[in-house]
Amino acid sequence: MFVAQTIASEHKDLIHDVSFDCHGRRMATCSSDHTVKVWDLENGKWKCTASWKTPGGSVSRVTWSHPEFGQILATCSFDRTVAVWEELGGDLSTKGDSSANAWLKRISLADSRTTVTDVCFAPKHLGLQLATCSSDGIVRIYEAVDVMKLGNWQLQCEFNCNLSLSCLSWGTSRTSAPLIAVGSDDANIAAGAKVLIYEYSETTRKWHKVSTIYSVKEAVHDVKFAPSVGRPFHQLAIASDELTIISLKNVREESRQISSEHSIFEIRQSGRFNDHGSKVWRLSWNITGTILSSSGDDGSVRLWKANYLDIWKCISVLKADGGAPEEERASIHAPSMSSTPGSFRY
Amino acid sequence: MSGIKVDVQWSPVEDDIFITNGTTINLYQTKERNGTLEIPCVPVSESKTSQEKSRITLVATNSELQYMKCVAWYPHKEQKNIFAIAQANGRISIIGFGYNHTDDLVGKEFNVRYNRTCNYLAWNPAERNLLAQGLERSRNEPCVLIWDVNSNNTEVGERSRHSFTEGPITKPAVELGAGESSSSFCWFRDSKIFAVGMANKHLRVYDLRDTNKAHLDVQHRCVAGVCIDPNDVYRLASYMENQVAIWDTRSFDRPINIITESKNVVKLSWCPTKIGVLSVLTKDSPHVKLHDIRHSLYGSDEIEQASVERNIQPFNKSLLSSFCWHPRHDNRLIAVMPNGTLRDMTVYERIPMEWSTSFEITMPFTKDLITNFEETGQANDISMLMRKRLSLNYGLQAQDIAANVMAIKDEPHLQGLWRWICNIRALIASQAASSSKYRLPLASGIISLLHLDREDDILNSEPVAVSWKASEGAKYSNRTHYRSNERIMALQLCGWVTDHPKDNFDGFIDSLVKGGNPERASAIALFHLHIKKALEILSNCAMSSEQGEFFWQPAGKPNLQAVAMALSGFTEEKNALWRRTCGTLRYQLVNPYLRAIFAFLACDEDNYDDVLNEEDMSVEDRTAFALNYLPDSKLKSYLCKLSDELTKAGDLDGVLLTGETSLLNSKGIELLGNYVDLTSDVQTAAIAAVFSMSTMLLKDTRIIEWIEVYRDLLDRWRYWHQRARFDIVRQSFIQERVPPQVHISCNFCGKPVTTGVPSSMMGRISVKIHNVFARGPQNRPKITCCPSCRKALPRCAICLTHMGTPSGTGLESGSGAKLTPFQEWFTWCQTCRHGGHAAHLIQWFSEHSECPVTGCTCKCVVQDSVSHPMFQGLGKKDETVSSKLGQQ
């Protein structure tokens, strides 16, 4: 049974993103009211320990870096910039209760000519890297030249996907080459596939498109790689008009010694669901990549889990008002289900 | 557009009342918030039943007036449900629900000169006697009229010659825009200012106090549907055809943004509860489009389209007629279809959400409430399971295997793996004790033990005839067992004790009976041809469970008696009735071991397939049975087939066969890999790899990956102690030197001034110092200078002797105290980098809070307020921090 605990956010406008740090003890939220808030778990209660206003307008995404690099947040705003914030420990925090000042903007990355729609730190094993994507289709990878000096980020790579991008996600496996999946919110179905997979090649020092997910043609709002936890394949969840879960297996795994050749992925669709009955906005995997949560336009969050045959089904529906999902609406959309035979609904 | 357009609006004062107006005015009440049920507005008689159930009820209806054009709801808290209605000829009637024409307002009528189509009606929200009306062009008549509904100067208006209306002509309070037409109007909130769209090309802002001249005026084609953002008094929006213009009254000369829709706009409205959200309904469209217009950049040359937009489809693919935001409730919208079907819906925000590291998911449902869902019960997810196992010290005890097994006692699929770990250790230990030349490879499975993975058949088992140990008189022909040294070892790995005088076979069987598994005991006894013993076990068990003598036994096995009886009739005669009956009846038995017993007895001498294919029997027992009864070639094919099946299925019981080392074909790793793929249980995979004690294995990339992922998980859960213990367990199996973490290095030569074991990277000097330490503690040299460059070490800030000199504190405080290494310890403030002997500094800071060094104002004690600053940062094991002591 799920037990809900509510926290007064004190945000004055829509909260766009919420992000946990690596240990799940700190949380950051960002909002249309231009503020970023940092929350700490103290004695089982979330307490806002810092809140600051950003100059760039609505903050659309916030993400934590691995604590190995320090307490670092990256945010992106609708003013086309990405900001990197660092918490100052020690001296400043002891000066008094000016906790809001404890977070300092280290750099503002203003390379994008259009809105930056998503920002993501790379997995820890790739070092302190930051990927951003923007609505003009350009993905930029930045790297901190010196972890001690966060004011210095270098644009490592830049590639154009020729699609208006809305989201990106890093592959999580540490044994395979770095991967990035990007999704586009281009509403034009005729424009073709909306999810592309890029792989970094060590030899050419470039990102190459290695795969295209042709099964999703509607506007994509979120993509997320599952934590790999030692699995040799990648699992990718795609939020579009429907929720799609696919697994990508590198068929060239055996001959990995020839590193000049990029991976060839065998794509298998594990599930496709429209239980939300409408658009799916956001996705999140749990720590072992065994439970996926999706939020949709119906105001509910659904949890998904696979059984041992890799058949996914909805195991829980969470709603803000605690009400049951509308059966009536669910039945309206039932005939258009296009999922695997094993798809269940609750 | 099909049918008559139906519009909808919420009551300006009441939260649960709204009207629709098409040919009639219908007043509805919603019983519940979020009443998202739809009413098919087919004739009332038919829909009556559905209405009772629905959350929206029709309260009143008015169909008196013909050709209604506009309806405006009188915004008064006491005088509810009064409407101003304009008809096609321009006449305004004020009607009310629940008034009998006694009210002074209801029943009033206002007529215009020259019948003209009315475009809008709008009550002033603050001065409620003012009602604005917009009209089409007619000669030189004014197109914007503002009526004062309370004024009684109706009589003064003279009846126009050109009017065909019946009522008296009243004079409006304000008249504007002579000879023009007006298409849209909006009052600013609580003010006498209003915006009006005129003559298809002017957007003007007037002040009631001075209506001669427009306050603001701009020429633009977007003059329809002008509306003011209720959350921002400077912001306006208007449209024309497929263009929506957004205005700021502070810079009114051109729109701040223009949104181009694909189709003509029919309704435009700001969301009253969200800042800067504009909703647009286009013609023949199933969705209301929301634009978050704040994200467009002001004053930029390249104006981006409103970047955040989304569609709301209240009726899925059906076309909308109109919609209306609830004026006070967050995100509440009522939508209506051309046939009158209604939907009161809540527009949900995009909910961002994220999983915490534990089974906890957080999402802000609204702007001011973050909800944190936590699974408190038993979730059957591996992430929860791993943490539960960890709390029981799973995989953290290198020697005590049983403790690990206890942690997973509820998970039978892991037991086989741990039995194998346990058995292989016992086997290795016994091999070592027996001082035989043959060294058992670590972590091997039965396949490699029997060399079945090699091409050449070197397994030379000899058949042994074994006789039945039956009760006197019964004579059965002997059965053939196969024996070899490898087979005996393999049997031990299966956990079986052989029927050899040296071994305690009876004890083994008895322990199984006591362990609550008499069927298995009986079957194993029978497989060793102890039929008498098998019968005894069954009948004893049947009786004892009736008497309840053995409380640990699961109750209710009386049918064992019947089984025992059936067994006792065993005959070897082919085609005997007994055998045929057994062959068929055994499928009705639930227990696989009982089935195996009958299968064993009923089968022919050399065909044991029925027993071997009894899949519910554990892998160990099946394998052990095969080891006893199958000749070499059959054994090989059987075990290889079995191991292939188990590997494919990721069944951990198969580790018994594959082991974990066989690097040549790496079946064991493949099996573990399949297990991880299926269950994501990287914990067990990592622990199994570590407990195999094989150094070779720990160099496999997949194994390294699992171990690293598992350590990462532990770190993310902040199970640092468990991670450290896991590392200790791992380290205890690989004999490798652990490099030290922190060095103090000399300020001059940069070499470590270390009192610990130097790391291997220190090269030549390290060897030297290592030798020095080999001499023993009594000969340990005092290090008061750098061992490599002989420069003196910094002085203690208190006693001003070089560090490394005994601190002398112990001598002062009396005879009993001794010099301890701790007192000579160097220590220093992490901030100001001043320090000295630990004992001296403790004394100093017990009286002072500031640094003892002259001129240094560092409040070292304050820095210490964080609980244990010394060891906090040392998360990673291989981190080598080199700190330099400053010279004073």
From TrEMBL, chain A:
<feature type="repeat" description="WD">
    <location>
        <begin position="8"/>
        <end position="45"/>
    </location>
</feature>
<dbReference type="GO" id="GO:0031080">
    <property type="term" value="C:nuclear pore outer ring"/>
</dbReference>
<dbReference type="GO" id="GO:0005198">
    <property type="term" value="F:structural molecule activity"/>
</dbReference>
<keyword id="KW-0498">Mitosis</keyword>
<dbReference type="InterPro" id="IPR015943">
    <property type="entry name" value="WD40/YVTN_repeat-like_dom_sf"/>
</dbReference>
<dbReference type="InterPro" id="IPR001680">
    <property type="entry name" value="WD40_rpt"/>
</dbReference>
<dbReference type="InterPro" id="IPR019775">
    <property type="entry name" value="WD40_repeat_CS"/>
</dbReference>
<feature type="repeat" description="WD">
    <location>
        <begin position="273"/>
        <end position="305"/>
    </location>
</feature>
<keyword id="KW-0653">Protein transport</keyword>
<dbReference type="InterPro" id="IPR036322">
    <property type="entry name" value="WD40_repeat_dom_sf"/>
</dbReference>
<keyword id="KW-0539">Nucleus</keyword>
<dbReference type="GO" id="GO:0034198">
    <property type="term" value="P:cellular response to amino acid starvation"/>
</dbReference>
<keyword id="KW-0853">WD repeat</keyword>
<dbReference type="Pfam" id="PF00400">
    <property type="entry name" value="WD40"/>
</dbReference>
<dbReference type="GO" id="GO:0005764">
    <property type="term" value="C:lysosome"/>
</dbReference>
<dbReference type="InterPro" id="IPR020472">
    <property type="entry name" value="WD40_PAC1"/>
</dbReference>
<dbReference type="GO" id="GO:1904263">
    <property type="term" value="P:positive regulation of TORC1 signaling"/>
</dbReference>
<dbReference type="GO" id="GO:0015031">
    <property type="term" value="P:protein transport"/>
</dbReference>
<dbReference type="GO" id="GO:0035859">
    <property type="term" value="C:Seh1-associated complex"/>
</dbReference>
<dbReference type="InterPro" id="IPR037363">
    <property type="entry name" value="Sec13/Seh1_fam"/>
</dbReference>
<keyword id="KW-0458">Lysosome</keyword>
<keyword id="KW-0131">Cell cycle</keyword>
Automatic annotation (TrEMBL), chain B:
<dbReference type="InterPro" id="IPR037593">
    <property type="entry name" value="MIOS/Sea4"/>
</dbReference>
<keyword id="KW-0677">Repeat</keyword>
<dbReference type="GO" id="GO:1904263">
    <property type="term" value="P:positive regulation of TORC1 signaling"/>
</dbReference>
<feature type="domain" description="MIOS-like alpha-solenoid">
    <location>
        <begin position="386"/>
        <end position="629"/>
    </location>
</feature>
<dbReference type="Pfam" id="PF21720">
    <property type="entry name" value="MIOS_WD40"/>
</dbReference>
<comment type="similarity">
    <text>Belongs to the WD repeat mio family.</text>
</comment>
<dbReference type="InterPro" id="IPR036322">
    <property type="entry name" value="WD40_repeat_dom_sf"/>
</dbReference>
<dbReference type="GO" id="GO:0005737">
    <property type="term" value="C:cytoplasm"/>
</dbReference>
<dbReference type="InterPro" id="IPR031488">
    <property type="entry name" value="Zn_ribbon_mio"/>
</dbReference>
<dbReference type="InterPro" id="IPR049092">
    <property type="entry name" value="MIOS_a-sol"/>
</dbReference>
<dbReference type="Pfam" id="PF21719">
    <property type="entry name" value="MIOS_a-sol"/>
</dbReference>
<feature type="domain" description="GATOR2 complex protein MIO zinc-ribbon like">
    <location>
        <begin position="746"/>
        <end position="861"/>
    </location>
</feature>
<dbReference type="Pfam" id="PF17034">
    <property type="entry name" value="zinc_ribbon_16"/>
</dbReference>
<dbReference type="InterPro" id="IPR015943">
    <property type="entry name" value="WD40/YVTN_repeat-like_dom_sf"/>
</dbReference>
<protein>
    <recommendedName>
        <fullName>WD repeat protein mio zinc-ribbon like domain-containing protein</fullName>
    </recommendedName>
</protein>
<dbReference type="GO" id="GO:0034198">
    <property type="term" value="P:cellular response to amino acid starvation"/>
</dbReference>
<keyword id="KW-0853">WD repeat</keyword>
